[in-house]
Protein: YceI-like domain-containing protein
Amino acid sequence: MKQRISLLLLYLVLTGSVFSQGKFFTRTGQISFSSKGILETIKAQNKTVTCVLDAQTGQIQFSVMMRGFEFKKALMQEHFNENYVESDKYPTAEFKGQINSPLPDLSKDGSYPVKVKGKMTIHGITQELATDGTLTVQQGAMKADATFTILLSDYKIRIPSIVKNNLSNTVSIAVACSLQPLQ
Structure:
């Protein structure tokens, strides 16, 4: 996994997505999701999210390894990786987007609501995504938070009929990344 994260960083640097000034970065961001079915709520969390934010242009990118999601029940985690998101075939999910509202003055401490628009790829399917988020600046560090919902069917993730009552097609996702200035 470290090799893939290193490759992602190298890719970002080589493609010009990362510059030395005004960039914020983390490899320990968090993404959690929940799906409330009739019989059961499925929850998982991943604490190894890579995120890069260009505070000058508003470009933002997230990448997460699907096998990094942790569930309360090991069997849920196994089914998630093998039956639903097919983690061996589609090992990562990513979002590439842009802050789609006027960029706040991120040189000052404060909490700033933003609108973000971009493309999210999960399970090999890319969909447009727009959501509201918050950037919080405190003493040179930045935190990016957002919550939104997706439909599993939009990403061709099929729910087997045998567990249809356990899972919902709608999944709530929360993103929380504490970003540090990129040196």
